[in-house]
């Protein structure tokens, strides 16, 4: 399967990649493929943004590889940070975190600020779990007296 089969070319054109430090082309290609696989998912709104990959040159740093992805998915802004000891682990970590954040932001719009249906006494459907009155109202067997 090629990039054109997956539709990742359009997504990768909208997402810019920047590198700092000693990042080789093979690592950059691998990170592009992982990021493109996440952002080219069917059903996502328009995607644009920036991914920065940094390799620290100091030898005493425990996690020399770092990545920052700042991506606009529809009207949601997604920011993901990752630090790892090697480039392949960084690509996997970035993919996992980016996938989780993109999924969360995509589904946030579907369920955000959604109100429940009105209760039965305000014209909503009866028996939706509001629980104050039975569906057919109070019965006379319960000891309710008629209003005088």
What share of the residues lie within helices? 25-40%
Q: SSE string, helix = H, strand = E? A: HHEHEEEH
SS element count, helices: 4
Largest sheet: 4 strands, mixed
Based on Cα principal axes, name the global outline. Answer: elongated
Terminus-to-terminus distance: 79 Å
What is the CATH homologous superfamily assignment? Ribosome hibernation promotion factor-like
* Uncertain stretches of 5 or more adjacent residues: 1-6
Structure description:
Residues 101-113 have a biased composition (Basic and acidic residues). Helix content is 34%, strand content 22%. With 148 residues, it is an alpha+beta fold. The protein has a single domain, classed as Double Stranded RNA Binding Domain, CATH 3.30.160. Strands 1-2-3-4 form a four-stranded mixed beta sheet. The radius of gyration is 26 Å and the shape is elongated. The termini are far apart. Mean pLDDT is 80; it is low at 1-6.
Structure summarized in a few sentences:
With 148 residues, the protein is α+β, with helices and mostly antiparallel strands.
Features:
Double Stranded RNA Binding Domain; four-stranded mixed beta sheet; disordered N terminus; alpha+beta; 148 residues; elongated; 22% strand; 4 helices
Write the layout of secondary structure elements.
Blueprint: H1 3-6, H2 8-14, E1 15-20, H3 25-39, E2 47-55, E3 65-73, E4 76-84, H4 87-111
Parallel strand pairs: 1-2
Antiparallel strand pairs: 2-3, 3-4
Helix pairs in contact: 2-3, 3-4
């Amino acid at each position: 399967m090629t990039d054109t089969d997956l539709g990742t070319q359009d997504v990768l054109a909208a997402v810019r990649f920047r590198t700092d430090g000693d990042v080789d082309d093979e690592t950059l290609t691998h990170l592009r493929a992982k990021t493109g696989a996440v952002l080219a998912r069917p059903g996502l709104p328009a995607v644009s943004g920036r991914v920065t990959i940094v390799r620290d040159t100091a030898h005493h740093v425990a996690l020399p590889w770092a990545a920052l992805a700042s991506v606009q998915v529809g009207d949601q802004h997604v920011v993901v940070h990752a630090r790892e000891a090697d480039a392949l682990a960084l690509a996997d970590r970035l993919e996992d975190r980016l996938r989780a954040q993109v999924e969360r932001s995509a589904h946030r719009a579907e369920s955000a600020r959604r109100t429940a249906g009105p209760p039965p006494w305000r014209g909503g459907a009866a028996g939706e779990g509001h629980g104050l009155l039975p569906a057919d109202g109070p019965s006379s067997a319960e000891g309710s007296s008629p209003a005088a």
